[in-house]
Amino acid sequence: MDESAFRDWSLKAAQWGADYRASLRDRPVRSQVAPGDIARQIAASPPDRGEDMETIFADFEKIVMPGMTHWQHPRFFAYFPANAAPVSVVAEYLVSAMAAQCMLWQTSPAATELETKVLDWLRQAIGLSDSFAGVIQDSASSATLSAVLVMRERALAWKGNAAGLAANRQLRVYASNQVHTSIDRAVWVSGIGEDNLVRVPISGAMRGMDVDALQKAIVADREAGFLPAGIIACAGGTSTGACDDIAAIAEVGNKYNLYLHVDAAWAGAAMICEEFRYIWNGIELADSIVFNPHKWLGAQFDCSAHFIRSPEDLVRTLAVQPEYLKTHGRDGIINYSEWTVPLGRRFRSLKIWFLLRHHGLDGLKTMIRNHVRWAQKLARRLAAEADFELVTEPILSLFSFRHLGGEMADSHNIALVNAINDDGRIYLTQTRVDGRIAIRFQAGQFDMTEADADTAYDVIVEMARRLSA
Fold first, then answer.
1. 41 φ, ψ to 5°?
2. Predicted structure pTM score
3. Averaged over 291-310, what is the pLDDT?
4. Residue 429 CA neighbour count, 13 Å, CB half
5. What is the 3-state secondary structure (H, E, C) of 182-196?
């Protein structure tokens, strides 16, 4: 592709993107294709000769687009959002065009120094003290893995990387069953093992970890010869928004010298609103925290903010410095590749900079407050219907509900979710609460309006009554 063609197709792609975003309300939220529909239309072997862009782009629209679920649709109420505010998309155009590998300060000083500044902006925005430093990870999974590796090394007196786990006592990590599955993976990948992830029972309306049970588990493990290493708490769990009592958990952790990591991947964005910070009281006592600006805040995926009280411990755990990665003659610089598992790093800070400058904290706070208010209104409306029940009360903009289905309630509610998603106007998912199926609703898409929440009510009730009939 020559310079002229690159210019033309770049403009066409940008125009297509703008037209696509404008058309989202007219599309079904979830892809309506059947398994294999897309693969059958793709050649079995790669082409020997290059093809013209008109043909490729036409196939993109014909083959690929019907198989896309539209995460930027304003009625995407499934999972958690993966928002891409338009200003963030524009920043990503620029990042893609430059295609810089920002692993070291010297490989793009602006990327490193902008990351330092915008992470400090985010720290201030969510009310953390300046005892925390931040780094951008690709996802909360990577941030959690980094935290687990640090807690492993700290518990092993920094000998794990060198001697391996076999040379040391068996480690234990503590979490409730409400944490994200990325915690399981982190425990696997770190070598600690699933059998050593101790599931602490939950209690209370917030479905948080039972602190007394946590302490008893730690004491029992110590007496049995295990080596407790750390605790992973959640603020806004994926299933129902569970929130641990971080202050109480931190007190237990400090008593036994355990590392405390807090997963606030979704809910952390709402901490820019002072009135919602009650869900993570005690956060200053954590050793590390993760939240995803690429969820509720509007930064295009991938972009995860990882805050650490002791960056030195993180670097001590992860940094490898061969001669070809050293920056000579420059003192006091940060190489963020030493703060992450991957060596390669994209220029992720640019989209945060664009986003915060364009919308300001006031604009983002208004969006989040609206989402919370609209979700709580929807929960009240469903609870007022005789054939619906709330399973879990709203935590921020997330709640779960069930349509009453007698002895077949689980299969009935699965059928209801499928009917809603096949209809296409909204997109929901299911979960299990205390062993029974419930339907999740979360408000969080960047362009959502109150009318979209009202549409959700209409669709849910209509499909439930149709199914029952």
1. -95, 0
2. 0.90
3. 94
4. 15
5. HHHHHHHHCCCCHHH
